[in-house]
Amino acid sequence: QPQLVESGGGLVQPGGSLRLSCAVSGSTSNYYTIGWWRQAPGKEREGVACVSIQDGVTRYADSVKGRFAISRDNAKNTVSLQMNSLKPDDTGVYYCVGECGGGPWGQGTQVAVSS
Question: Which of 23, 35, 37, 99 is the most buried (most CB within 10 A)?
Fold first, then answer.
């Protein structure tokens, strides 16, 4: 069973930045797309960003456009999420997900944005 392992979460002040990384066991080429979802306390999970493994085309939730950037490195079998201008509403557990929701989920990494 392919695995996705997230890292890079933590506590950051509003306006700060974090970079999340997802290590994909085997190869990123096992997937058409890989994405990041998040779940805030008391809220449902939501899709944040998605990247096409073959051509790098990306898409984002409106709430993060212009602040977050997803990228993939097929040579290293990783997918990253650069998060800038973080807001308290970005707080939550962030998951790396195969096929941007239709595949396996990682265990999640906690992001907390607070002063």
Answer: 35
